[in-house]
Structure prediction request, 65 residues.
Amino acid sequence: ACPPEIVGSALALQNAIGFALTIASISWATAVVSDLGPKVSWLLLPGPVLGVIALLPLLRGRQAG
Prediction:
């Protein structure tokens, strides 16, 4: 949490960090695929799988409530 008068700045900073991470990860993935071939795209699979597993408790809680 942050003071109400800096909420906009905090959100802008968080958004900028998110975009920077996205640009870095897309650049990294593009370089790896071009260097090692498309077979390494399987390295990206754990991220979405772990994300879905992490969201399952939230989905179950929503169904029960």
